Amino acid sequence: MFLLTMSLMIGTAGLPHVITRFFTVPKVRDARSSAGWALVFIAILYTTAPAVGAMARLNLMNTIQTGEVGSPTGNVKIDEVPDWFTNWEKTGLLAHEDKNGDGRIQYYGPGLDAKAASYGWAGNEMTKVDRDIMVLANPEIAKLPNWVIALVAAGGIAAALSTAAGLLLAISSAISHDLLKGIVMPKITEKSELMASRFAMAGAIILAGILGLNPPGFAAQVVALAFGLAASSIFPALMMGIFSKRMNSTGAIAGMLAGLLSTLIYIFWFKGWFFVPGTNMAPDDAAHWLFGISPGSFGAVGALINFVVANVVARMSAEPPAEIQEMVEHIRVPAGAGAPSSH
Question: What is the structure's pLDDT at 311?
Fold first, then answer.
């Protein structure tokens, strides 16, 4: 859990579409203020999300359990379930089966089967409770107004579209400008560069669509995997580029490759190669994870590998040019800051 939290934190700092936002303001002071407020709202989000999940689970249990757990009258009658239950059953994300034909829904957690058996039958008739829908269903479960439900849905869609747009811009510009124009074809025209950017964006959309149809896990797992990749590749390079004048391009590239490949191999080992079902080399459970580290939490370990490899390679290779070291010093101490003075 500690490594998962670490991966999310440093992964957020390394996400390309987050970094590019700092170039949209005219002054350093504005960027720092924006980052500060962003951290405040991110802290609120990360601290309240578990509470919302816990309340969703409690609301579901209270809906089904209407009396003493396990008793014949302790479970809701099928024809008396609330409207939200019926509505979400239509989506296929929530389902039940009356296995004993008593007209009620039994839903027993671990440790309750023995007590329920004393009433004649023990079992779980909630055959499906999709984790992704519980937060969206929570306002309806809590009988909040319809506009609150619409606000939650609109917020989720807006966040998804905003993130997707930022990532598509970062991906297309990295391929067309940094890779194609910067390395492969330096003399390419702006028109051709723009066309390459569009093709790169289309390819990214197709790849994202394929992964969306065959997700490697539920939403939280997929987010953790993405943040883990950013944490193991981009974040260490950013930190070493700002705080280490000894870091050179060779060390940074070697570190990023080591961190990214180690994280990808660990994820693919348990999730399947390129997330293709049935290609995993080991079962995806805690008993087989290395030191109990889940695939979604390995980004922090990959970042550590990145730091180590980058520093070793940088010290075994030539120092960066003087102008690069001067640029790093300028980033750390902007021109015009001046020496400290006494008052």
Answer: 92
